[in-house]
Amino acid sequence: MTLHRFTGDALSEWMKGDGPESDIVISSRIRIARNMKGYPYPMLATNQQSQEVLDQVSEVLNNEELETISRFSLVKLSELSELEKMVLVEKHLISPNLANESRNGAVILSENESISIMVNEEDHLRIQCLCPGFQIKEAWDLANQIDDIFESHLDYGYDEKRGYLTSCPTNVGTGIRASVMMHLPALVLTQQINRILSAVTQVGLTVRGLYGEGSEALGNLFQISNQITLGQSEDEIIDNLHGVARQIIEHERAARQKLLQDSRMRILDRVNRSLGILSFAAIMDSKEAAQRLSDVRLGIDLGMIGELSANVLNELLVMTQPGFLQQTSGVKLSAEDRDIRRAQLIRERFGRS
């Protein structure tokens, strides 16, 4: 597999399949933080120590059991351009922290990009598994299987009382972050979203934007994840998130039905206006693009638009990001040039050029 395979295509192979409840849940993710005994955390490690960690992790890639899951490629961050790193961040394959601050940082990617294992990020290992739709338990099963393979070859830092040791105290214990990316336009339009999200935080969960902590919830996309890793088992964490996400799905469906019953023409007008602007605009910033794409996706899910696939909108969410726009253009673009290129790209995807 070539690097271009990972940075040249906006839509990862795993995203092309439709998972359960995919009209509301875009994706499900498990991330597991692990560290190796006897080595300082990456932020404190010397160049030699971080290289030794990378060498030991790389050896596990030759394990036959791992090969039965997928073919994997090791990508060293030092071999990537800043633009290539940005694209991997935009595809959620690496974190901004790994892209900007790592020493001997690397990422191990599966063939369909559903599995990414960051090396020498905030922790020595961060195993991430992504599934389309509402498949948080399936993502956990896969991540747990991969974690077991690595643990059988590496000596993890573990304490009998505290559990797995991590560089950030909020990850100590299970080391698990489970999350679902949800598209919740109806809850936003019916002004229920703040009440719902406030209730979520009362049960040990947190809400973030599209790119995790500190990011804005653009395009009505919200990432719901566990906040507690210590004092609960892995299954308790997964079950709690699964149950709360199920309730949010039901609230979003009820809100969509209410919009259809009470405001059908207003919603149809909103959807068609956004579709028209996306189809013919000459310039568009990323915030407006995300909102307009959210409107159109809602129209698709409500049966108001039949000629577009939701996968096109998933693809455009990545294709219209600054890094990917410049990657496809082959040159560094100013903010205005990106807005022009973004509008052009959307027009092309919608069959208007």
Automatic annotation (TrEMBL):
GO process annotations (BP): phosphocreatine biosynthetic process
GO cellular component: extracellular space
Coiled-coil stretches noted in the UniProt entry, renumbered to this chain: none
PROSITE patterns listed in its UniProt record: PHOSPHAGEN_KINASE, PHOSPHAGEN_KINASE_C
Record-linked InterPro entries: Arg_Kinase (IPR023660), ATP-guanido_PTrfase (IPR000749), ATP-guanido_PTrfase_AS (IPR022415), ATP-guanido_PTrfase_cat (IPR022414), Gln_synth/guanido_kin_cat_dom (IPR014746)
Positions annotated to bind ATP: 27-31, 92, 126, 177-181, 208-213
UniProt protein name: Protein-arginine kinase
Gene: mcsB
